[in-house]
Amino acid sequence: NVEATLTLLMPLTDPWSKKHKQVTRASSGGVPFNLSNSYAQPLTHRELVELSLARGDQEIVDAWNHHSLGYTPNGGSQDLREEIAKLYGPSITADHVLVFAGAQVALQTAAFALARDCHSIVFTPGYQSSVETPFHAGGEVTPIVRRAENAWQIDPHEVKAAIRSDTRYLLINEPYNPAGTLMSQDVQEQLKDIADRHGIYILSDEVYRFLEHDPNDRLP
Fold this sequence. Notes:
4-stranded parallel β-sheet; 10 helices; globular
């Protein structure tokens, strides 16, 4: 049946958030104020417009007021993909960009496309929706533990040691959740070289890009 088929294709894991809520809920003896939520309270439409105008963003307000409400291409409108491509330099164009309605859908789609019949490497602790995607895709996965004594940095030597003949997928998250650290450009280059030598795809989850305290630390 459908339920059995879905369970077979995507084995479910107990979400971290479930245990987190049980531990932190004030009514259960947890904390009175939970500062660990990863979202902010949303603005109203008026507040968003007023904030934009206060920042001098009249152009974006005009675009908001005059944009079409028709259907857009499934992979994102041309203008949006062009703007995203500009973030990554002249070698990336709109044709290299695919837009999703949410990052979790993008992570899951990438895993099912690239990590179904191979070995993957992920890093823990990490955001569950990122780390679990290769497991859901049905491939074999080796988690590498990031440690406080190493400033939560990825050790390229541990990556090399985890590689197998069928390793094809490496999932990283920089800036790193939950520690907030950022790998050096040297480590980034080492990981790229390792991936090139072994024919490995790198999925780089950059949801916190542009939140660096110093823009000079931003990875290319």
